[in-house]
Fold this sequence. Notes:
The longest helix has 15 residues, at 29-43. This protein is of the alpha/beta class. The protein is 46% helix and 18% strand.
Amino acid sequence: xxxxxxxxxxxxxxxxxxxxxxxxxxxxxxxxxxxxxxxxxxxxxxxxxxxxxxxxxxxxxxxxxxxxxxxxxxxxxxxxxxxxxxxxxxxxxxxxxxxxxxxxxxxxxxxxxxxxxxxxxxxxxxxxxxxxxxxxxxxxxxxxxxxxxxxxxxxxxxxxxxxxxxxxxxxxxxxxxxxxxxxxxxxxxxxxxxxxxxxxxxxxxxxxxxxxxxxxxxxxxxxxxxxxxxxxxxxxxxxxxxxxxxxxxxxxxxxxxxxxxxxxxxxxxxxxxxxx
Length: 276
């Protein structure tokens, strides 16, 4: 298995784990509640009692914690040792005695994936497109879902030429020094939030029509911004590509939220045929 830290040092990979370790410091009950609600909403269940939950690329561990609070037996893993440390710290803080395993591993490591078994819920939100081999990673996630189980994934939307520009930005960010990264982050922020002043004005003038936007999934906008600009490797797919790939392996789509052809992730929940 490739070493995450050597890849980061060589400028070939973003240090996702360092960003998530910082995010854990601002974790609170409101963020956990928001993450928990997003799981129940997408999976269309009130809880996960009696079910097994696999978190592929667990990052901060927030959604592993959410699944644990919903009653699941949780197995979390990540390629980045800093992400493993972040998730371990979260587990120690909120669920030290819980049925929750945290370890380092790669979804692209066939031997490792084969040892994991099969799960009622396989979850990987915004991760598989950062592995360096998205389709292989997605196929592995499919194989880990038991009959009757759910596969919950989110994959970056293919924006055509815009996605190629962002791939260049991300690659350049990771190969640059501190000043270069600050410049790319600053320019990206200006571009991504260029409509914010107008929206703020509309919120003042017409607050009922333009209410403040909630922070989705309990995340942090500042940490998400760094993750977006630096997030490399970077692959994308159109919604229909993901749909066909998973459907042809014996699944049906039960939930879909797209980003409307814009920047961001398309979110899918599939149910595997069979089971009860």
